[in-house]
Amino acid sequence: MSKAAIVFWSATGNTEAMADAVKAGAQEAGAEVSVFSASDFSADMVADFDAFAFGCPAMGDEVLEEDEFQPMFDAVLPHLSGKKIALFGSYGWGDGQWMRDWEDVCSAAGVTLACDSVIANEAPDDEAVAACKALGTALA
Ligand SMILES: Cc1cc2nc3c(=O)[nH]c(=O)nc-3n(C[C@H](O)[C@H](O)[C@H](O)COP(=O)(O)O)c2cc1C
């Protein structure tokens, strides 16, 4: 059985709702799923899991949340090679630039994403929830 970790940051619940759908999809596909807030996850926990879904909304000016999520991800990223990785998050007025930049950071670190990233404009609609479930399935 695949052990999957969902690690996310969310201020107003939109990315958290996406994380819930990722969890449902991964569990339906048979994975053992653990869910963490960004502040509760650290690099020494990476070895415990086969697959990771990282979720963070667009914050600042098209960047990841800088106080909790970015430092956690910076610390974890060097340990992700050989793991199944997927990204998701919510955004507001932008066009998804933060996610394209995040994907580029992963690529530059030699991390290959297991599936297309999922972005949702504010609260995830039915289509975004389905895409998050499919992301969870891809990780299982
Ligand atoms: C301080 C702050 C900065 C933000 N910066 C961006 C941004 O650069 N681009 C964008 O598309 N949305 C931006 N947003 C909108 C959030 O990404 C959007 O509301 C998202 O749904 C929040 O997700 P959450 O509910 O998981 O916290 C920003 C929101 C806040 C509060």
Task: Give structural attributes.
140 residues, alpha/beta, Rossmann fold, 5-stranded parallel sheet, 4 helices, 5 strands, 21% strand, globular, binds flavin mononucleotide
Quick gist of this model?
It is built from four helices and five strands, in the order E-H-E-E-H-E-H-E-H.
> What order do the helices and strands follow?
EHEEHEHEH
Estimate the strand proportion.
15-25%
**Beta-strand segment tally:** 5
Could you tell me the radius of gyration in angstroms? 13 Å
Indicate the CATH class. Alpha Beta
- For the record, what is the CATH homologous superfamily label? Flavodoxin domain
Shape: globular
Distance between the termini: 8 Å
CATH topology: Rossmann fold
Outline the low-pLDDT stretches.
Answer: none
Average residue-wise pLDDT: 97
Structure description:
The protein is an alpha/beta fold and 140 residues long. The chain has a single domain (3-139), classed as 3-Layer(aba) Sandwich (Rossmann fold). The protein has four helices and five strands. The chain has helices at residues 14-28, 69-76, 97-108, 126-139; strands spanning 3-8, 32-37, 51-55, 84-91, 118-121. It has a five-stranded parallel β-sheet, sandwiched between helices. Helix 1 (14-28) crosses helix 4 (126-139). The radius of gyration is 13 Å and the shape is globular. The structure holds flavin mononucleotide. Flavin mononucleotide binds next to helix 1 and strand 4.
